[in-house]
Specification:
mainly alpha
Length: 222
């Protein structure tokens, strides 16, 4: 586990900073105060950007990711699929348990208005935790595990971070929602990766698992 953190320090160091900074904010400020502050800053270009960027956190995005990984290594396909299922299961179970109100509902109770990005469908309930943050951090954390390029690892973190921020910018979630969602995604990614990379069941089939699921190479004809 320690070696996994060391190899992916370019992803985990900025993530730990994110946890520290946002965790401190959650201690000293209420979710309404934090959201009011974030909601003050908006512009047309950011509206356009985040309304589309947020889609990278949709669960359906796992399909193109898995299709690409199928050309690389079957083990990566397995890790990504199982990690995604674990993330969604935990996240959706917690949503059902807490059934918490989203920003538009909370602010309407308080009699306060929010700036809402045009043409974005707003939801009222199941705010905690954020599904986009959970799947985004799970997916891009795993992608950082699959690459040796440290620059790419940092880029993957930034992509996941912006997906999470987009949920607050669009007033779909509070800071505590994306904070918890990111932890769910990261923990699911780490546990699934460690299990399938090092588990005895999977090491027995290393020869098959470490080959591409889909190969473009043509077999040589006799």
């Amino acid at each position: 586990m320690v070696s996994l953190f060391k190899k992916n320090a370019s992803f985990f160091i900025p993530y730990l900073l994110f946890l520290l900074v946002c965790g401190s904010l959650l201690v000293f400020y209420s979710k309404v105060e934090m959201h009011s502050y974030i909601n003050r800053y908006h512009c047309p270009s950011a509206d356009f950007f985040f309304s589309y960027w947020t889609n990278l956190g949709l669960g359906i995005m796992i399909i193109p990711v898995i299709l690409i990984l199928a050309f690389v290594r079957f083990r990566y396909v397995l890790i990504s699929f199982i990690g995604f299922l674990i993330t969604v299961t935990i996240n959706d179970s917690l949503k059902a348990i807490f059934h918490s109100a989203r920003p538009v509902t909370v602010f309407s109770w308080l009699g306060e208005s929010l700036y809402l990005v045009p043409n974005v469908e707003m939801y009222s309930w199941n705010s905690f935790p954020s599904g986009h943050a959970a799947t985004g951090f799970c997916m891009f954390c795993l992608l950082s595990f699959y690459t040796k390029n440290n620059f790419l690892k940092t880029i993957y973190f930034l992509i996941a971070l912006l997906v999470s921020y987009s949920r607050m910018y669009l007033s779909e979630h509070f800071l505590q929602d994306i904070y918890a969602g990111s932890l769910i995604g990261i923990c699911s990614a780490i546990l699934t990766y460690s299990w399938i990379m090092n588990g005895r069941i999977f090491t027995k089939f290393a020869g098959r698992l470490d080959k591409p699921l889909i190969s473009l190479k043509r077999n040589n004809l006799p």
